[in-house]
Structure formats: structure tokens, C-alpha cells
Amino acid sequence: MSESNYARMTGESRSLDDVAWVDKIATPQLADIQNELRATIAANIGQAEQRWAWSMISDHLIACQVYVSSSEVLIRPLIPPTWTHAPFADATQRILHVRDRWARAAIWSV
Hints:
There is one protein chain. Helix content is 36%, strand content 21%. It is of the alpha+beta class. It has a domain at 3-78. The strands form 2 sheets. Strands 1-2-3 form a 3-stranded antiparallel beta sheet. A two-stranded antiparallel ribbon has the order 4-5.
């Protein structure tokens, strides 16, 4: 991480752009730090409301994207758990959005 991005992440903001700054940790960098990141979060998650979500992704960090800002770290799976998370797997409707000039959003029952 560059020196200026590190300063932004640690809250040493100098301008409005610094306050609104968000950066994605590159996947090769995430691969290098995933064990340290996992250990740090596990040691500090305690009884936070995110502990359940963390338990689901902690062993799969390399399959996630990590975003950092001066106020938070956001970890999102590349592929949502559509077939294993009950609200997704048991859905009664699906929405498909195809972006081309012949298709439009469609809703269908499953």
C-alpha cells in the first residue's frame, strides 16, 4: 500500500477526497496477507454482530474482495452463497437483468 493510501486509511485526512477514499486490496496482495488478516480479525471479532458472517468466509478469504477506507474494512465474497444461504436458495422469485439491446429485466417464479 502506498504511503498516501496508508495515511488515508489511518485517518490522516487532508482533504475531502481523503475522507471519501476507498481502495480495493489487490488479489495477489490479499493472497500474501490472508493468514495475517484472518488471525487479526479472529482475535478481535469477539461477540460482534459480524461473527456469524466471519465464520462463513474466514476460511475463504482468497475468494473475497477486500475494500478499505478510513472508517471500515469491507470483505465481500466474489460469488454470493446463492445455493447455500436459505434466503437465496429457497427464493420463490428470481430477477434476471441482461444488458443488451434485445433483452430487459425479467421476473419469474421458481
